[in-house]
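Please go through the protein record below and see whether the fold suits the sequence. Record follows.
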Amino acid sequence: MARHLSVGTVIEKNRIASNVAFVILIEVEVKDSFGNLVEILRMARNNEPIIFQDNEYVAANFELSLKEQAGSIPEIQVVAQDHTLAIQQRMQEYGGGVGFGIRMIVVNTGNLSQPPEIVETFKVIRASARGYVVTFGLGAENPLSMRFPRRRQMRDRCSWRFGSAECGYVGDLRSCDLSLQGPNGCAAHGNTRRFGGFPGLSVGKR
């Protein structure tokens, strides 16, 4: 996790005047109910897109703040304008947004080829949306609450997201019940070879 400013950045920071800007990038890691990564939404707190490490971060309007209340642990809050409803759509599809991962990255726009100046990783512990505004409350990810192994082993249920690269289905059917032999499962799709469950288990999960 990067925390130290590079020499070039320190020089720029201490100049009386500079054309170099430090921009905050945010990566929203959209995850399903199994904790599998579905996609990453990338945003830059800037008035134009930024290309960093071969990824495009779209220009976005968001604010960061530290919320403190007596008797409670301080919470970092992200408030983002979501005029395209892209974030809210993912929240509706995947559990309201709680459990999503958030990476905050600070970059030196004067030299985007260098590593980020600061990288911090959080987990969304509270999420809400009103109108075109999305609010995330962030907390540090607790290693004791992380599933290990990451992939849950179940006998009768596929752990892959339907249509994903792991699933591999490219036919005409539009949905799947994630079972092996169910009426709308992997067998019905002719895709038992990619079934993401463990039918050899003697119990439902391990």
About this structure: The CA atoms of residues 128 and 135 lie 5 Å apart.
